[in-house]
Each structure stands twice: as structure tokens, then as C-alpha cells.
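Reply to dn_fold:

You asked what the input looked like. This is it:
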Amino acid sequence: MFYYLSTAKHEPTYDPDLAHISIEMWSRSKRVEHNWMTRFLSNELEGDLSVEQSKEVLRRKCIVGLFDEKSEPWLRLQRFFRWKLHTHTDRECMDRLLNWGWSNKHLHPTIEEDSIAWDLLYKHNELDIMLYQYA
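and this is what came back:
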């Protein structure tokens, strides 16, 4: 979110000042996310969290895929919804979605494991990390 919010001018939470601080500084601020996905899936925006409720929502209601491996979850979605690609235009559209450039893609530096920023972000998002490993 840090890199996205520093560039996404269309977002209500866009903040150009983020371009002038480090991710470590942001991870020490009050604006850093705290287990956002776990909170979202469990519908617990405040207070204590349990990752178990979020795991159950994932298990029962979600099809999970990795951005780097877009084709495999797309095939699962096709099977689940019984989508058929009947025409050349359908197949080209799917190819464009899965393999061509993504207009909202943001490249950013990798955070080194065991760095201060890594450790801070890990502490803020430990339940989300457990949820990711479960998925």
C-alpha cells in the first residue's frame, strides 16, 4: 500500500508526501496497515482478531490465486463458473488479461528479509502472513 498510495492520484487516500519518506518510516507511523486482509475477511475492523474466522471464509467462499501465476486460478474460475471461450475474440481477451501489461502494476524495491522495515511490517501483519500461508 505504501508505494501505491504515493502514486495513485485517483485514490481518496493518495498522499504525495509518502514519496518523501522511507517504507521504514511509514511502517513506524499510524498509517501502516494492521492485518488488513484478516480484518476484512472476519469483518472485525476494530479490536482483537482471530485468524481462524478469516481462514474459514477463505476455505468456504474464495478462490485464491497468485499474481505471478495468473493462469492457474483463472482456469479454476472458468471451471467453477462454467465459462466457455467460444470465439477468437474471447480467447484473445483472456490472453490480454492474463499475459499483457497491467495498467495498474507498480514496481517497487524488494524489502530485505530481517531488515528493520521487514520486522516492523511483519509484526503489524503477522495474522495476514498466517492467512497467506494457509491459502
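DSSP finds eight helices and no strands in the chain.
Hope that clears it up.
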